[in-house]
Amino acid sequence: MYRFVTRSVWGVIALICLCLGGCDFSNPVSPQTPLSPQTPLAFPPGLSVEEYALKGGPETEPLTFVPIESTQAEILSKHQGERDKRFPDWSYSNQRLVSRGDDQLTASSFVQVFRNGEVIYTIQVGTAGAIPSLWGLWTYDNHWVLEVAHATGIFSNIIGSDVLGELIQDGISLNKQHDYQETFGFQLMKGKPFYFFKKGGRFGVSYDNQEIALGYTWIQHYGCCSASELNPKSAENMVAFFAQRGIQGVWHYVEIGVFE
After folding, report:
1. Could you count the other beta carbons within 10 Å of the beta carbon of residue 140?
2. Could you please report the per-residue DSSP string of 90-141?
3. Which of 33, 75, 168, 198 could in theory staple to 181 by disulfide, Cβ–Cβ 3.0 to 4.6 A?
4. H-run or E-run covering 70
5. Stated pTM of the model
6. If pLDDT is split at 50, 70 and 90, which confidence band does 39 have?
7. Cβ atoms within 10 A of the Cβ of 169, count?
8. DSSP string, 157-180
């Protein structure tokens, strides 16, 4: 839930308030063989994927995972300096303001996007609950990107809710534009757009407008309460997350980033 990046002439205000109420990526890059633990796999232009198979699912309180090879401490120490460069957690805040230039963008959940007080985009997001509808508003180059979570059903301490993520860029849904079942986890890495997607029942990532089909059957995200410890954790130039792959649903701890 660390989602706040601005790199452009836009100023951004992100307001969270509960209400009732392109191009064709035709050249996806896919690993020819499954990634090996402790073996980084580089994708142009400089993105690396480091995947570690686990003996079982991760645990929370405290966050614990047991790799088949190496140890949790050894794996986490490798990019600890990069992981420490966290974005502010603003998904549950009332307001976040960054001033740049003469313009201001505002997002509220319902959700609406405003430019200098004028509505430029509105989207319905479904049931309000413990999981926020608004997950981020960013700008880069001449673009703005909004992340929302669509919840269906009722959410309480004992009743769950299905949640699907959607990224909107300049008023256009990336889900619809690229036939994705879901998109989530937007951030910038080295100034280039990065996000997760689900397509054809499998999860991958997009970096600098290029799909990377990693073939995961599940990526943990939008978890609430103690389960939020397993959500993707973003830093300036990387993201860490938990994923499953294969018929057996083997769990993996994964770090993706543009490492020095």
Report:
1. 18
2. -TT-SEEEE--SS-EEEEETTTEEEETTEEEEE---B--SSS-SEEEEEEET
3. 198
4. none
5. 0.78
6. very low
7. 19
8. SSS--EEEEEEEETTEEHHHHTT-
Cβ atoms of 147 and 136 closer than 8 Å: yes
For residue 232, with 0-12 CB atoms within 10 Å meaning exposed, 13-18 middle and 19 or more buried, which class applies? buried
Q: Which of 192, 171, 170, 199 is nearest to 184 (CA)?
A: 199
| CA gap 218, 211 in Å, rounded | 17
Pairing of strands 95-98, 47-53: unpaired
**Residue 37 burial (CB count, 10 A):** 17
C-alpha 56/C-alpha 54 separation (Å) is 5
Residues 45-94 have pLDDT tens digits of 788 999 999 999 999 989 999 999 999 999 999 999 998 888 755 444 43
The amino acid that residue 201 corresponds to is G
Pairwise CA distance, residues 206 & 192, whole Å: 10
29 against 240, higher pLDDT: 240
